[in-house]
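User: Sequence for NISCH protein below. C-alpha cells please.
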Amino acid sequence: YPSEFLMQKITEDNQIPVHLHVSVSLQYVAGLKGNALVEFFHGNIAEVENEELRHLMWSSVLFYKTPSVEVMACVLLSTKAIYFLLDDSFIHADEHQSDFWNKENSDCENSSFHLSCCFVLKLNDLQSVNVGLFDQYFRITGHSADHIVTCLTRDSYNTHTFIQQLMAVLSLLARTPSPEPVDKDFYSEFGSKNTGKMENYELIHSSRVKFIYPNEEEMGDLAFLVAEKMDGLTNLQSLNILLYVLAFQVNHVEGPAQNTSSLQPKTLILTSSDLFLFDEDYISYPLPEFAKEPPKRDKYQLADGRRIRDLDRVLMGYQTYPQALTFVFDDVQNQDLMQNLTLDHFGE
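Assistant: C-alpha cells for NISCH protein:
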C-alpha cells in the first residue's frame, strides 16, 4: 500500500469540477498528486494509523441539519471511515450551525493559514445508503440526524464507482452476521404477499448496511406529480418522463460583477410535451427512522414549466463538459390566446 494503480486513480480523480468555485484550502488539496496526496491524508485527516485511503471523489454535499446549504467537498473513503473535507465558507453560510460545527479556530481567518472542516462518518456507524433516481445522487445515513449526508454527484458513473468502492471496503469490516431467514426466496424478500406490489429494492450487504435503490413506483409517483402541474391537460397513461437530470439554472448577476453567474441547483424533467424545473429535497426523503415529523417542504416543488411547442430554439455553448444549454421560448403571455379568440368571436 499504496499500489501504483491506486495512486494513478486517486490522482486522476483529484479534480475539482470546473463550474464550481472552492476555497483556497480545497484548491491546495486539489493540487496534490500521487504520494503527496496519500501523505496528506495520513498526516492531516486519517484518525487511525493503519487505515488505507481507497477512493477520492469531488462532489457537492448536503447535510440533514442544513438542507438548504449545498457545499463543495472532497470525499475520501478509507478502510475505516468516510471523510468529507469541506469548504471553509460553509461554516459562515448558516447561523444555525453553531451547535453543529466547532468554531474554535475562527481566529485563523485573517492569517495566511487556510482552514477546512472535516466531517467524519465512521463505517461502523453506517446504516443505509439510498441511491437516487438514475444514480444522480446518493444519501448516506448513520445513527442520528448529524450523520445523514447526501452526495450530489450529478453523474451516474461517479455514483456507481463510489458505491462499488464502499461495498468493497465494507466487506473488510468484521461484523456479526444477522440471522438468515428460513426458506428465503425472491418473492418473500422483495414482495408483499397481500398486495403483490414491489417494495423499494433493498440489497443487504454482508456488513448489514442496507443499499436501497428506487423502484418503478417512484417514477409513477413522479409522473403523477408532473401531470398535476400540467393542470390535468394530459392523460396520465400517455405521459412519459423522457429525462430526469440534476442540473444548475444559471442566473446572471447584474451590477459590478457582471461576468459572474450564480448557479441554482434544479431538477430538470422532460416529458413528451413539457419541460419542467423543480426544486427537489434530496436529503429528507425517504424519512429516516428517527424522524418525528415530516419535512417542512415537499420533495418536489415546481420552479418553472414550459410547453415544448413554445420552444423557439436551443443555444449550445462550445465549452467542454458540463455543457451549457439555453432554451429560448416564444414570449406569449396568454398561451391559449387563439382558442379564446375563437370562442369569443364565433361562439356564444
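Helices lie at 4-13, 24-30, 34-45, 156-170, 186-190, 216-229, 337-346.
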